[in-house]
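Structure tokens please, single chain.
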Amino acid sequence: MNRAARAVILFISQGAYSGRSPIAPGTAGTVVGLLIFLVMKDLAPVHYLAICVLVFLAGTWTAGRTEVMLGCTDCSSIVIDEIAGYLVAMFMVPTGWNFMVAGFFVFRAFDIVKPWPLRRLEKLHGGLGVMLDDIGAGIYSNVLLQLAAVYISR
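Here you go.
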């Protein structure tokens, strides 16, 4: 693989290199997810979902390639999964700062704790294993945020 291809793969899988943060790379990656969400928040749901699917597919491929390049499984510098997970967490959630911040913390909590069956998904081989537990954490977060939105709107 040539040098340019390696650089692009690492740039994507490491979330614009936020995954190289020496402190809490997963949290740094989620910050990148929040910044991307700020750009996407006003998109039609079908377009938002299409971008989520593209991020998932690109993330699965680049995470798998990065594992091979770096010689580690689910390397801490791979944060495209946190980016994708946060975007899933915020799908069709109200866009106020309170929900964006709540989504950030709720997603990080689910990503760290990995309730059933997320820990099992993490054990899948390659990029799919890297991505799926965070997508699951994003789904759990989204359900909780949607319930909070309904409760608040009463």
